[in-house]
Amino acid sequence: xxxxxxxxxxxxxxxxxxxxxxxxxxxxxxxxxxxxxxxxxxxxxxxxxxxxxxxxxxxxxxxxxxxxxxxxxxxxxxxxxxxxxxxxxxxxxxxxxxxxxxxxxxxxxxxxxxxxxxxxxxxxxxxxxxxxxxxxxxxxxxxxxxxxxxxxxxxxxxxxxxxxxxxxxxxxxxxxxxxxxxxxxxxxxxxxxxxxxxxxxxxxxxxxxxxxxxxxxxxxxxxxxxxxxxxxxxxxxxxxxxxxxxx
Length: 247
Fold this sequence. Notes:
It is a single chain. Helix content is 79%, strand content 0%. The chain has ten helices and no strands. Helix 2 packs across helix 5, helix 3 packs across helix 5 and helix 4 packs across helix 5. The chain starts with a helix and ends in an 11-residue tail after the last helix. The C terminus is likely disordered.
């Protein structure tokens, strides 16, 4: 507990030991995260929707996603820094973060469409909707919650990876952890970890709200009605002192 308190004391104490101010480091962390996730969305979402709509290429997508998840993030980052050169470390960082973010977003995009009841899609075709209309008016709205969940997972992974990527001097909140270790500043290390955890929790809460909002209104209404029906059923069917299930 004293270590955690020392971390908070460092955050509000202003002793940065030659590192960037916390607001600047936070902004850098957010910029890398937002840019990388947006690029991953542009790449992964259309591919995921195409797979989910047509049913083709799923095995390839699963294999690529599995391979990308198996790659050590820090090792990949160091390798790309060597490939791009030390003068292009930010570009290498963004490419690394995009590669790490794509699997979760891709899986969320095609899984959201695959989870839709086929009878709903068949009904759309029966009333004369085109494939584009089925995609944009049925599949995309109904698959949005799982897509947002995939983006949520990708954001948290990128936030964590940006932390360790500060090892090569790109900035971000991870610099406090890396600077504090050789200085034996436990308060600085813990304070940096608290800042990263706080950022991750805030972003996770935001995407949790977005995930709930992304559920189509008709689905939310149906779910709430079903919940009320189940509640009434539980009230009418409950155990008695004699072990009976009926009232």
